[in-house]
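BUG: 3D viewer hangs when loading the predicted structure for this chain

Environment: internal workstation, default settings.
Expected: structure renders.
Actual: progress bar stalls at 90%.

Input used:
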Amino acid sequence: MGVTLDLSRAAAQPLVQTAPNLAGLTRAELAAALVDAGVVRPEKAKMRAGQLWRWIHHYGVTDFAAMTDVAKETRAALAEAFTLGRPEVVERQVSKDGTRKWLIRMGPGVEVETVYIPDVGRAGALCVSSQVGCTLNCTFCHTGTQALVRNLTTAEIVAQVQVARDDLGEWPSPKEDRRLSNIVFMGMGEPLYNLDHVAAAIDIIADNEGIAISRRRITVSTSGVVPQLAELGARTQAMLAISLHATNDALREKLVPLNRKYPIAELMAGIRAYPGLSNARRVTFEYVMLKGVNDTPAEAKALVQLLKGIPAKINLIPFNKWPGSDYECSDWKTIEAFAAVLNRAGYASPIRTPRGRDILAACGQLKSESEKQRASARRRPVTEADSAGL
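Structure tokens produced before the viewer hung:
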């Protein structure tokens, strides 16, 4: 199975048990659920599941009553046994550059942030979360300062896409001119520590009769959980991104503590063995530019040597400042000089334009609002009103 970290207190189970949400089931699971609930006879389960699938994932309906080609009594039985509900959108923010961020509440104390970035990929990319919080504690990442609450379920991952498409007006699934064309698992959490639910969510998102986003437009970013790389490629056929940020173990262990468990040489070997790796399916290496830390021309040359023979592109990410961070972003001339070394070596190395900084939606800035408020409350002096319970 896909989980390699002991998350016994953070298992992917909703905190509030409700009727099963059909939106989080794969096709096979959907057919089985209909039979188990006594809604459909076994011989008709596959046909009925396909019918419901299009209503849920192509048309985006949230009410069984809208399924006009399903018999009335069947719709009533479905409504008694299941739900199609969306999670609560606690807050919606829109940046001056068009980036959108939603704070989504999956249950009491279980909130994630999801970000839509226009003009990325073919049209626009949705940055989805796979966990509430994170265990990796990367020192440059705001999300890493939030303790892990739990894994997200398949339904909760898919729900982030549904919420975005609701807001973008993208139902039914458009064949052309879609605004949401790419999915990136680059939000809160380490996707490979929740691989089973991430893989199932990708199966749902990529299905041609539903949301229909190609697997080649779905990217999973990992900090380097090496034992799960091959399984990720085999199960999802997703594009791979590696959160790298350093070219030697000593520095990477400071920036990405996971490197102590899976050092760079082991990581590179795992990447070279990634299923489907080719010039047409290059690995993206993410490299955050930290002033005076990892941004010298010597580091750029070391990066070229490290990636030799790997079909790759390198995203250079200007560091996005967040409250309490000790790091600073590299100067623009320094970033350009770094990129020039990579370009001369034949690597595409775009400098990622920071998006959504004004709403803390940029890379490395996500942290659920409830956690921010709890942290703020811990820092705030107790007042007389607090003591009185007001």
